[in-house]
Design a protein that fits this description.
alpha+beta; 6-stranded antiparallel β-barrel; rod-shaped
Length: 678
């Protein structure tokens, strides 16, 4: 059932509809009573809802006329916005009137953001829907105070409190039975915050900065504040003066701890009075649905940390830092090469220039080559403006006046890290034979009782530096590969223990412990095999005997000469003779210091001449100097050398002889004399 009445240009509707329940905001069936301007058809106020059940249907029909009459009485007493106080919705809110003393102070409401008619209607409905909340619910949204001031704001507030400001009083604005004035603090739009007191005079006053988060937030979004374009569409169709008056009431309600008596100027019509309810819902809308005003202040805590060694990553890292700042405030941190910043929550790794926002916990990680102190320098975020709520106590029973003050904070933030003072081990490798520097030696370095920390190789200068290590610890150095031609140094099983003294002599600013390691030449071996025909041996002439000599210079420059004898006796020959009729016997040379060109020679032998020299090894060089013939010395026919550095063990050379004389007898005893030459 729908009823419609018109009285003094106001159409009253009473019709079935839905209304929001208190508990779950669910819709319930019932009756809605609202008003509409008869000419503009613009919706005015919704005064209430009545629930309907099937049993109550008949009762509601009977009392509908009584409800309509009550609504007409409310319309007559309510301070409804007058036609002359309204402006077309599409025109927006006009600029703040200028005073004679402040020609340049104006507030262009909505000029920074254009809204379509649909958007304005949507925002308007949001406010109207909000007005349907029960009175106690409406108040609860605004009662909780939050200390939203950041430490930098607090510092700015302390600095600005007591500052002398100029208060300018502008034209009077009437609303209901009350009136207020346009106020300006240092030329910026301000508001009376105590409607029941008298209007102060203009002049110089001391202003205080209030740490009232709700008041500052409301000032930020209401007329004169940077956030006004976001709220202005809710005031569409309301004149500039009435918009200012509403904002004045919103701020006064917050400033006076949500005391409803500040709304007396709208008339004593109870909590459903349109002006009062609109102001409350604007305050609650801002408190509930809008972000806090941005603040530029920031602080990184702790300001300084000492890095520590992380065994898992084998890197040094810091503990967590925390960027205490607005989550919308973005900071760029230039990092040195080799340093990474990690977001402690997400694990995201950043190098070069790291970008983080307020509320981020982070830490730094770097290699052990980083030492000393590193400072981030002064860091400034992407938010460059702060806003403080200024309040003037005008004294003498006059109204307090408040406004929003924009400041450009001087504060910057930063942090530092003290990297570990690392140390290192220097290995110098040389030959025990002549002291020459040896390259190619491979060492492992491990923390005592721990895993391998590094593997290093000596350069052409015979030196190898470890990576940076933690000083004050014991490390074990092991040689796992010697330079070519040399034996691995002693203690290869347990290694050499080195204490990395933090007070050791510094090279390039780093505590360095030097270790001298000598290498002995590798011992090489060589086999010489003699090959003759078994059927050419005449045992009556004596056993065939051959003498071989190996001589040359080792890698250290020392000369060496070794001799061996190969003898064939009847028992050996009969046992070892081969199918092709040849028999072989060998002499083995061992303990030869490594060298690159040892010469192998056969001494002159009775009844035999050297016919050929062969080897399957690439490190053996065989030069044929002349054709074999009786009477020629073996070394005149072949020149044979072996590079024992290339193949330290297993080299074999075969000398094959032929019998050329049959009538010589020889004694078969031999004596070997060993002479050590120092």
């Amino acid at each position: 059932m729908k009823s419609e009445f018109e009285w003094k240009g106001v159409t009253v509707f009473v019709q079935p509809g839905n209304y929001p329940g208190r508990e779950q905001q669910s819709s319930k069936e019932g009756y809605e009573c609202r008003t509409q301007d008869s000419q503009s058809k613009q919706r005015k106020e919704t005064f209430g809802y009545w629930s309907r059940t099937e049993k109550e249907e008949n009762y509601m029909k009977r009392i509908i006329l009584f409800l309509a009459a009550a609504v007409l009485l409310l319309c007559a007493a309510a301070p409804a916005v007058r036609a002359e106080d309204t402006i077309p919705a599409e025109a927006g809110v006009q600029s703040v009137p200028e005073t004679e003393t402040q020609k340049n102070d104006s507030c262009d409401a909505g000029a920074e953001k254009n809204f379509s008619a649909e958007e304005k209607e949507s925002l308007q409905i949001d406010i109207e829907d909000g007005s349907r909340l029960e009175p106690e619910e409406t108040e609860l949204l605004g009662i909780e105070e939050e200390a939203v001031f950041f430490t930098a704001d607090a510092a700015a507030a302390a600095e600005r409190s007591g500052e002398a400001v100029t208060l300018t009083v502008g034209k009077k604005v009437k609303y209901g039975s009350y009136s207020t004035n346009y106020f300006y603090i240092n030329g910026q739009l301000a508001y009376c915050l105590e409607p029941r007191k008298s209007t102060p005079g203009g002049g110089s006053y001391a202003a205080d900065v209030l740490s009232n988060g709700s008041l500052r937030k409301a000032m930020y979004y209401l007329m004169g504040g940077p956030g006004w374009p976001e709220v202005a569409p809710a005031f569409a169709g309301v004149s500039q003066d009435m918009s200012y008056a509403y904002c004045h009431c919103v701020l006064s309600w917050i400033y006076n701890n949500y005391d409803d008596s500040i709304f007396l100027g709208f008339g004593a019509l109870g909590p459903q009075n349109g002006g009062q309810n609109f102001c409350k819902n604007v305050a609650n809308w801002i408190a509930r649905d809008f972000p806090e005003p941005p603040f530029a202040g920031a602080e990184i805590t702790p300001a300084s940390q000492e890095a520590y060694y992380d065994a898992e990553s084998r890197m040094q890292r810091t503990g967590n830092y925390y960027l205490n700042a607005d989550v919308r405030n973005q900071f760029s941190i230039p990092l040195p090469d080799g340093v990474a910043l990690y977001d402690a929550a997400t694990g995201v790794r950043m190098t070069g220039t790291a970008v983080i926002t307020g509320g981020t916990s982070f830490y730094l990680e770097a290699g052990m080559e980083h030492a000393g102190k590193w400072q981030s320098g002064k860091l400034t975020g992407s938010i460059s403006n702060d806003y403080l709520s200024f309040v003037i106590d005008t004294g003498g029973g006059s109204q307090d006046v408040g406004g929003l003050v924009h400041i450009e904070p001087k504060e910057t933030t930063g942090f530092e890290v003290k990297w570990m003072e690392a140390g290192r081990i220097l290995i110098r490798k040389s030959s025990a034979a002549d002291g020459s520097k040896l390259s190619g030696a491979v060492f492992t370095i491990s923390k005592k009782g721990g895993e391998e920390a590094a593997r290093i190789v000596t350069d052409t200068a015979g030196e190898a530096y470890s990576p940076l290590l933690i000083p004050g610890e014991i490390y074990v150095v092991k040689e796992i590969k010697a330079p070519e031609g040399y034996r691995v140094s002693g203690q290869e099983e347990e290694g050499i223990e080195i204490y990395l003294d933090p007070e050791a002599e510094r090279t390039e600013g780093i505590a360095t412990v030097c270790v001298e390691v000598e290498n002995q030449l590798a011992s090489c071996d060589l086999e010489v095999r003699k090959r003759i025909r078994a059927d050419e041996i005449v045992w009556a002439n004596g056993n065939p005997i051959f003498i071989f000599t190996v001589d040359g210079t080792d890698l250290g420059g020392d000369s060496h000469c070794y001799s061996r004898v190969v003898e064939f006796d009847r028992e050996y020959v009969e046992k070892e003779v081969q199918k092709d009729g040849f028999v072989e016997a060998s002499a083995r040379f061992e303990g030869i210091p490594c060298g690159t060109a040892y010469r192998i020679r056969e001494a002159e032998t009775s009844r035999y001449c050297l016919q050929n020299v062969t080897s399957a090894d690439e490190n053996v060089t065989i030069q044929k100097l002349a054709e074999p013939a009786a009477g020629k010395l073996p070394e005149e026919v072949f020149y044979v050398t072996a590079d024992l550095l290339q193949k330290p063990t297993g080299t074999c050379v075969v000398f094959q002889n032929a019998k050329v004389k049959w009538n010589l007898w020889s004694h078969t005893d031999t004596v070997i004399n060993r002479v050590r030459v120092s």
